[in-house]
Amino acid sequence: MNPETWASVGVSVATAGAGVWAARSARRTPKQERRDDFVAITEQQGKAIERLERRVQLREAEAETQRQRIADQDEAIGWLVGRVRGLVLHIRRAGLEPPTAEPLSERARQYIHHIDA
To answer: Which of 13, 61, 62, 115 is deepest in the core (most CB within 10 A)?
Structure first.
């Protein structure tokens, strides 16, 4: 074998060695895989938490709307009870007797406390 052939073989072996070394160094370690899995899971959890926070905010807004509606309805019921009492008083002052009230249901009784029924 002449020296050029040996040089060619030497270059080929060096190239193969460099290729093997590059392939080995490019391989991901288990530690790197775990770190990437952790990042992916953390991102998924972050998105899930943001979704839950939006849902909680929506439910809180709905609850506030319902509380306001209930307060308004309470005000309306109070006004109606006062109005009925006033009408009954007016009828009695006129010397008449108001019609007999229908019995109050238990469900309604929970919300109308100051009524003579």
So the answer is: 115
